[in-house]
Write a structure and sequence with these properties.
The protein has 168 residues and is an alpha+beta fold. 18% of the residues lie in helices and 38% in strands. The protein is built from 3 helices and 9 strands. Strands 4-1-6-5-8-9 form a 6-stranded mixed beta sheet, with helices on both faces. Strand 5 and strand 6 form a beta hairpin. The N and C termini lie far apart (47 Å).
Length: 168
């Protein structure tokens, strides 16, 4: 029997500029090296960091955009089983309500770009982002949804909605 996969906890933060374009990072490192994706990172579990605290920290570190938890709307929790066959991920997806005024400079994680939502599907993005992440954003960013994604590399991606909480 293979050893159990590690479980990682992370956030993704969807940020727009004042024109409504999405900020994406062309990742220079794994996971998703060479692909465009929203900013984010892993929780500092040793300090007891919450997903909201992580989203605020990662936004500041990666973009210089200083926000507070009040600037964030948690719109999805996604449990990914066996992502790339290497780990299980518990991901928290946030929509940042404060627009980013300018494109951040490149950094060790990669370089940034702003893209209209209808242009994103033509970019080099991970298959799971194309089939699951962006449709989740499009359908649920104003409410809350909890999902499970079975990402076994030898099987088709399967998404199960576990709960939807409508917007107020």
């Amino acid at each position: 029997m293979p050893p159990p996969l590690a479980h990682k906890i992370a956030v993704l933060v969807f940020i727009q500029n004042s024109q409504g374009e999405q900020l994406l990072l062309l990742r220079a490192k794994a996971p998703n090296q060479g692909s465009w994706s929203p900013i984010g990172g892993k929780l500092e579990t040793g300090t007891g960091e919450s997903p909201f605290e992580c989203a605020v920290r990662e936004t500041g570190e990666e973009t210089g955009h200083l926000i507070t938890t009040a600037d964030l709307h948690l719109f999805a929790m996604v449990a990914e089983k066996s992502y790339e066959g290497s780990a299980h991920w518990l991901m928290f997806l946030f929509d940042c309500k404060r627009p980013l005024p300018t494109l951040p400079p490149a950094m060790s994680e990669g370089r940034f770009g702003f893209f209209a939502r209808d242009a994103i599907d033509a970019l080099a993005i991970p298959d799971s982002d194309r089939t699951a992440l962006w449709p989740i954003y499009d359908q649920h960013r104003r409410q809350f949804v909890a999902l499970r994604a079975d990402c076994h590399p030898d099987e088709p991606l399967q998404i199960t909605v576990e709960q939807i909480t409508p917007a107020n």
